[in-house]
């Protein structure tokens, strides 16, 4: 078994929605990012890469590379999963936490869970989605941005 951890942060900016776990969520702000700025999927990719000993998302999908401009972050997860499968590594489970004052994640929790399970080619029972505010504290509490953390366990086939 191999464990990995990932974290990502993006600032809020102009916009009417954010992408979280591959799900479009209406919001009064968007995120500032080179890709679609999906903090959950970026943290997930980093956790998967970390568990596999394959570095981080920036090494694989540079945020200065024009081909990733506005990219759908689901593509990153699919690419990373292929790297894992080539090494005979399978996802045992993932546990993701969103940190944000807003928007509320609860209404989208099951949709995000299903989307991530589908991307990882595992059953939804292997994916857990949590969310917390920071009780108004810090840059997240001031709603200046959004963050996500991910922990994954990989099994060696
Ligand atoms: Mg990111």
Tell me briefly what this model is:
The protein is α+β, with helices and mostly antiparallel strands and 157 residues long. Helix content is 30%, strand content 32%.
The CATH topology: 60s Ribosomal Protein L30, Chain: A
Number of domains: 1
| Alpha-carbon Rg, integer | 15 Å
Treating each run of at least 4 consecutive H or I residues as one helix, how many helices? 5
Bound compounds, please? Answer: magnesium ion
- What's the rounded overall pLDDT mean? 96
User: In the CATH hierarchy, what is the superfamily?
Assistant: 2-C-methyl-D-erythritol 2,4-cyclodiphosphate synthase
End-to-end C-alpha gap: 9 Å
Tally the beta strands. 7
CATH class: Alpha Beta
Helix content: 25-40%
> Which overall shape is indicated by the principal axes computed on the Cα atoms?
globular
Strand-residue proportion: 25-35%
The biggest sheet amounts to:
5 strands, mixed
The largest sheet has its strands arranged as: 4-1-7-5-6
Would you list the SSEs in sequence order as H and E?
EEEEHHHEHEHE
Contiguous runs where pLDDT drops below 50 for at least 5 residues: none
Helix/sheet category = alpha+beta
């Amino acid at each position: 078994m191999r464990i990995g951890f990932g974290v990502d942060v993006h600032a809020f900016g102009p916009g009417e929605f954010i992408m979280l776990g591959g799900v479009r969520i209406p919001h009064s702000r968007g995120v500032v990012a080179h890709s679609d700025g999906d903090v959950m999927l970026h943290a997930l990719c980093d956790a998967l890469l970390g568990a596999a000993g394959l570095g981080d998302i920036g090494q694989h999908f540079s945020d200065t590379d024009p081909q990733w401009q506005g990219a759908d972050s689901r593509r990153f997860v699919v690419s990373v999963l292929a790297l894992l499968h080539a090494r005979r590594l399978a996802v045992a489970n993932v546990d993701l936490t969103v940190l944000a004052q807003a928007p509320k994640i609860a209404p989208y929790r099951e949709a995000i869970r299903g989307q991530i399970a589908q991307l990882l080619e595992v059953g939804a029972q292997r994916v857990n989605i949590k969310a917390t505010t920071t009780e108004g504290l810090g840059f997240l509490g001031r709603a200046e941005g959004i963050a996500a953390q991910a922990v994954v366990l990989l099994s060696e086939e």
